[in-house]
Write a structure and sequence with these properties.
With about 70 residues, this protein is an alpha+beta fold. It has one domain (about 5-65). It is built from 3 helices and 3 strands; from the N terminus they run H-E-E-H-H-E. The chain has helices spanning about 5-10, 30-45, 55-60; strands at about 10-15, 25-30, 65. The protein has a 3-stranded antiparallel β-sheet with strand order 2-1-3. The longest helix is centred in the middle third of the chain and has 16 residues, at about 30-45. It is elongated. The two termini are about 15 Å apart. It binds zinc ion.
């Protein structure tokens, strides 16, 4: 287990990657921090009140992990 790698990891999300015409991008240290922000964005910007399984999968598939 490489502690340094874990500490440096961050998660990036581009709304565009879910198929939206949207420039929204966000990054966070933990995926758990990212999800509620993405959900809030979907609600406020795209009027999606409930995130269905299809969108959940697209969001999950769009979150990219980076190590630096
Ligand atoms: Zn968006």
């Amino acid at each position: 287990m490489n502690i340094k790698m874990v500490r440096m990891a961050s998660y990036h999300f581009k709304c565009r990657d879910t198929g939206m015409e949207c420039p929204y991008e966000i990054s966070a240290r933990k995926a758990e921090d990212l999800i509620p922000k993405i959900v809030a964005h979907e609600k406020s910007e795209h009027g999606i009140d409930e995130i269905g399984d299809d969108l959940k999968q697209r969001i999950n598939g769009s979150i990219k992990r980076r190590f630096f």
